[in-house]
Amino acid sequence: MGIGVLVPLSRPGWVEAGQHLLAGLELAVHEVNKSGGVAGRPLELVVRDTAADPAGAVAAVDELAQRGVVAVAGEYHSVVARAVAARADALGLPFLCSSAVLDALTDRPRDLVARIAPAQSHGWRIYADFLLAAGHRRTAVAVAPSVYWSSGIRVLRDHLLPRGGSVVELDAATLAPTALCDRLVESGATALLLLVGHPEPAVSIVRSVRRDPRLADVLIGAPAGQPEFAEWASSLGEYGAAVPFLRYLPECFGPLGVQVERALRERLGTAPSFVAFEGHDTVMVLAEALRSSGACGAGDAGFWSRAAVEGTRGRIEFTSASGIGVRQWVWAPVQVVGRDPAAPDNFRVLHSG
């Protein structure tokens, strides 16, 4: 029984995120098959690299459908997941999105699309609450052109403005890092959020800000989660610490989470990110939905209502959420965390929502 898997495994995709996502998916398939598979049949992942390319991902969905997969899963980049969702739904294939958070994952309601990751508006409002609680009323954003970053700015502005905050946009596509620092000083902002790609220009911006004595007291933040991965720490060293970001993990795992964390760490050779857990939970949800569908098949409108499972981060059930056109888990746990300056391999939880 084949499941089509879409993950970014080459540039310009976020390769490390793709590797963690795939590790979680593969671990869960191993566990399902060890327990007898689905209706006595083993699950098989048919993996395709999206390289963060929407057109390439759509072509991959077409090819996977021709191969006879029963569902499509995965993806990290929101613009790719949008394209996948539309195509999979048009072909009658269930698509479970693991990690993309853009609220408008589809342009209209689609019964065959569901998502495990929390919507951007949910997580980024929690991040905005963290900024306000820490005393940051004037926030600057270094932003690159993208529907995802533009959506994030709207969420921040809509949440901060009624509460006495403000958002200043700095165009990272036209401003060199040193010029961006000058504009940041002029803005009077006490926090700078990185709404840009990684490693560049994010790494260069962080280095410039950290080396500028005028900005010694400015908080650097990364709500999209760039500091979660080891590549961030290896690229920036001590400069990469104390950069708060969003991750979707509970403060304490239950027995299943502890077990999966141990197995993922062994597979990856490093601490698993929240993306790896999203991958694991994705397969467990799909396996349950396929078991429960029976004669109904994988393409009926009630597919996701039969997919309730105990996941690594809590019980997963899908519902219709206001303003979101797909079936949504409401909600995965959300934390604002940062690497500890005294021990950059350790994370400190700064805020939970």
Descriptors:
single chain; 353 residues; alpha/beta; 16 strands; globular
What can you see in these coordinates?
With 353 residues, the protein is of the alpha/beta class. It has ten helices and 16 strands. It has helices spanning 15-34, 54-67, 78-90, 120-133, 147-160, 177-187, 202-211, 230-236, 255-268, 274-293, and strands spanning 2-7, 44-49, 71-74, 95-97, 113-115, 138-143, 166-171, 191-195, 219-221, 245-247, 309-311, 314-316, 318-320, 327-329, 335-340, 343-352. The strands form four sheets. Strands 2-1-3-4-5-14-13 form a seven-stranded mixed β-sheet, with helices on both faces. Strands 7-6-8-9 form a four-stranded parallel β-sheet, sandwiched between helices. α5 (147-160) links the parallel β6 (138-143) and β7 (166-171). α1 (15-34) packs across α9 (255-268) and α2 (54-67) packs parallel to α3. The longest helix is centred in the N-terminal third of the chain and has 20 residues, at 15-34. The radius of gyration is 20 Å and the shape is globular. The mean pLDDT is 96.
Order of helices and strands: EHEHEHEEHEHEHEHEHEHHEEEEEE
Q: How far is it from the N-terminal to the C-terminal residue, by CA?
A: 38 Å
Please estimate the helix content. 25-40%
Which residues sit in consecutive blocks of at least 5 with pLDDT less than 50? none
How would a textbook summarize the main sheet? 7 strands, mixed
